Amino acid sequence: MVEAWADAGAPAGVVNLVQGGRETGAALLAQPSDGVLFTGSAHTGLHIHRLFGGRPEVVLALEMGGNNPLIVWDPTDPAAAANLAAHSAFATSGQRCSCARRLIVPEGAFGDAVVDALVALADGIRVGAWDAEPAPFMGPLARAVAADRAAREIEALVAGGARRLTSRAVRDGAFVHPTVLALGDGQEAPDEEIFAPVIQVRRAASLDAAIARANATRFGLSGGLICDDAGAWDQVRRDVRAGVLNWNRPTTGASSAMPFGGPGLSGNGRPSAAYAADYAAYPVASQEAPRAVATPAQGLPQ
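^ that's the sequence the OP posted. Answer follows.
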């Protein structure tokens, strides 16, 4: 990407790529800056927010992930819904801030059919290295320590009453297999983002109850509805608290031509992507005329 900027004519030093860990990030944040645009965890985003508190001269745009809900409701094809849910939960090995973390389905046979189809897909997903043959759907997590964390989080949910519906081992080194968990009745799961290919299933007795479950989070980045009823979509679009809300599409579907961001712990009200160029540049507005013309006004000498 930096090479592309240079090829497009960006002057040397305007766009720089600096790679490193926590110490590198801390060193960058300590430099004089007009703005910080951050994408990452809520924990790090909150630290940056505190670091620049009381400094309105610094543009601060935080995109901090989410505990994103995906509602699947009748009428729709359970197999198609499961396919979209798999793309929502397991794309990029679950390492997208917009991945679905919570699947909300109706009580009864339709919900059972959706969950069964998703489990079958998850158990059949090929996981492997980038150059494996045949090509895998997903690879490892970014680091082995991330896989360790994901495995601990899954174990904690199971210890709290969740059932692991998928049959493969949770992990193999840095590779974490797609995991579907069914939360127990009344089980309270931590409202945290599990940054891995893990989705938690919840049941709801009505669409109103499903929406309430969807909104039961401190985050608000993305969400979705899979349902063929346009009236249900109107209700979800009106009532679900999420910045990026998709209908019959994966929750990971987004475009740099549209704004991207959400409320709560997902951001601080400055959407990224298309809107960033507006709030990070100045002048923000101009009124222009080709020459000066006197403007008559009451009480002003002519």
